[in-house]
Amino acid sequence: MSSHLKQFVLCLIVIVSCTFTIEAQTYQPTEKNLQNRADFEKERFGIFLHWGFYSMFGQGEWVLEHQKLNKDEYACAARGFYPSKFNASEWVKAFLDAGAKYMCITCRHHDGFSMFDSKATDFDIIDATPFKRDIIGELSKACDEQGMALHLYYSLTDWTREDYPIGNTGKYNGRDGSRADYNSYFNFMKAQMKELLTQYSTRALWFDGIPDHPSDFNWRIDEFYDYIHSIKPECLIGNNHHTAPHEGEDFQMFERDLPGENKAGYSGGATIGKLPLEMCQTMPTGSWGYSVDDLSFRSVEELIRLLVKAVSKNSNLLINIGPRADGTLPDLALDRLKGMGEWMRKYGDTIYGNGAGSLPEQPWGVTTSCGNTEYLHLFTYDSATLEIPFTGKVKKVNLFDGHQPLKYKLNKKAKTLTIELGQVPSGIDTIVEIVRP
Ligand code: FHN
Hints:
TIM Barrel, Immunoglobulin-like, 8-stranded parallel beta sheet, 6-stranded antiparallel beta sheet, binds ligand FHN
């Protein structure tokens, strides 16, 4: 073989091997993972729960940080954590009755306390509290029994472990930063991932905490995601890093804002990707964890409209509750869940399996759609006649309530559809359904 031919063959081998190397790095979700994504996207409504022994302080989930508490003294409070009224089945039933199809609970928040039976640490619900019951395990069982999907929130930030490299937070709680050892911490997290993925019916992992370090900090996230998907390829991974989706992720979340908005200030760098979307928001206007003084709960009307708006932007809504230290859900949270359930039982068809409609947000409200049916959600409108931009044909136009036919006029030249609503809309959400042929 001539030297030129040898060089050509060698170059060809290098190119092909590089191609395979690159392809090997491109994440390929499995069919079951894609099915989980599709199911997640159809469900549209989930319940978020921020719960830990920090609920005993009644000052939210950041009390350790906000009060600059000593981590060891703070950990002593776990010895009194006994949520005697916790009933996983009652919780799951309340969420399902509200119309939610999945739940996401903090199995380990920034304080590093594990609400599940972990062999990787004694700072967990079994070893550090008198309760000694696997809260995540009981919720997983209740979800299986009642048909609710379980997602687990897991913090990459840790305010109490010495091997976690101290970042923007956790600086004043008595740790010796010189003992940081990210490899040790990474292996601890991998050990817990294996527990969470094999001990429970975990459909998704909801990561948080990345902003604790600057963007050049090496979390070894690709290795972490590969490890997770090597154990459970169908597990959905989402990470609340407030930026565009990262290779290996299966859904994209937005905090306190609808996709594309940035009113709360977390989503400045979060360009909307192609993955299923989810926005999360608190039921009270304050913290995620239980705050004894935070009784400013959003109204049922506001929560329903938020859910409808989320769906109008092809997003799920994950609405958060902070359970009390005794294992009960705040009365106001139960009240809101009840009100949402009453609405969802009547109008859930305009939410489940729906995505964005043909119109961007209008002064009167938003649109959702499913198949050949579009739903106009009129929140505030003071006329009995509505004209919208519209192209294409119409099979029928109904008031969703009772599917009562409405008079309409299609103007193909002006590309408008004028609908006689019969009366000026009132209430939380007047829904008009437009069925195309
Ligand atoms: O610091 C956390 C906070 O406690 C809460 O868990 C929220 C939920 O999205 N995420 C972080 C703040 O961005």
